[in-house]
Amino acid sequence: MPSVRYRAKFFSTATATAKKTRANNLVVQAAQSGALGATYNDGDFSMFFGQQEDELSVANVPPHYAASPASVAVPSGPNNIPPVSFAIQPQGTVNDASVNLVAASQFRAGYDNTLYINVKNTGTVVASGQLKLALNPLLSLISTTPAADETIGDTLIWNFASLQPLKERKFQLAINTAVVPPGEPVLIKAEVLNGADSDLTNNVAVLDEQVVSSYDPNDKSVSATHIPANEIDNEELTYTVRFQNLGNIETDFITIRDTLSESLDVASVRVLTASHPYEWQIEDGRVLVFRFNPIRLAPASEDSLRSHGFVQFATRLKPGLEVGDEIANTA
Questions:
Q1: pLDDT per residue as tens digits for the range 171-190
Q2: pLDDT the model gives residue 3
Q3: Residue from 69, 65, 77, 67 nearest 1 by CA
Q4: CATH architecture, domain 219-326
Q5: Are 28 and 58 in contact (CB under 8 A)?
Q6: Can you say whether residue 77 is alpha, beta or left, with left for phi > 0 and alpha for psi between -120 and 50 degrees?
Q7: 0.70 exceeded by pTM
Q8: Residues 249, 251, 257, CA angle at the centre, nearest 5°?
Q9: CB-side exposure of 175: number of CA atoms within 13 Å?
Q10: C-alpha closest to that of 256 among 307, 293, 207
Q11: Residue 304 reports pLDDT greater than 70
């Protein structure tokens, strides 16, 4: 049966008459066909599904929010699809902030690297507070963007204010890894302090890696490799895909295709952060496609720090997995 391309818009708004802000990184699901679509940076989304009647809903509404309307009925036929807007509306007054921490590449002895920190207001009210980062003794600081407001020992502190709900603020650190034997541990902790925060489980991000002597410039890592049996049904996995320009000219664009395991719930995907602006979509039901266009990655031979990029996302396991099940994933 021929498929229909469906378009709609998402907004983040407290009321139907409030100022609208485009909402991105949301997944919409068609109940009958199972088709999935993801919102772009401008809040739009598009998806293909059969010409039969169907019902659309938001699959990954952020915590503390609800979608309005909860679902939209789609009539059959390619010419009968009306325009629709989903509003992601706050539920109550919630003070909540989260933090992500990603290294642009592995910690190679004697080489420079970049740390990316992303602070997001996951609550429903304006957030203000502090970001703290404790550097590992094996790392030497080259620069920070923006500049830290305070440094106490090995801890850098940034103050932030007026961070709107569902918005984020990015921080970057250029660092150098000491020349030490491979296998030396590199532990880095980032923490966001946001007053009376309602959910402290997302206030700390930790990088726990090791110094390497050689590395794969295009690697993929996951937050957990072994999951206790009593946590299987509630586990969320965080994947980080990193890439580097090893050519001899600056890149124009990069496309990443990541095929998710049948054991992962694609509808629960949340894109957490990325090194550069991107658009993403879901193809063939299980393939995440990230397009960085444009992206100006310098050749590694000319500027190692500017030659790296990454994208990080999270997804939940499907219920019913058993001990010993393997979760394969390729990008």
A1: 999 999 999 999 999 999 99
A2: 45
A3: 77
A4: Sandwich (2.60)
A5: yes
A6: left
A7: yes
A8: 140
A9: 29
A10: 293
A11: yes
Which structure tokens are listed for 249?
């000219």
**CATH fold label, 9-90:** Immunoglobulin-like (2.60.40)
Whether 97-211 and 9-90 are alike in CATH topology: the answer is yes
Name which CATH class applies to 97-211: mainly beta
* CA nearest to 280, candidates 11, 18, 40: 40
pLDDT confidence band for 217 (50 / 70 / 90): confident
Separation between Cα atoms, residue 152 and residue 287, nearest integer Å: 44
The answer, yes or no, to whether residue 12 has pLDDT greater than 70, is: no
Ranges of each domain in the chain:
9-90, 97-211, 219-326
C-alpha to C-alpha distance for 279 and 289, rounded to whole angstroms: 8
pLDDT score of 20 more than 80: no
Q: Burial of 62 by CB count in 10 Å (0-12 exposed, 13-18 middle, 19+ buried)?
A: buried
Question: What tokens were used for 304?
Answer: 């190692």
CB burial class (10 A; 0-12, 13-18, 19+) of residue 31?
Answer: middle
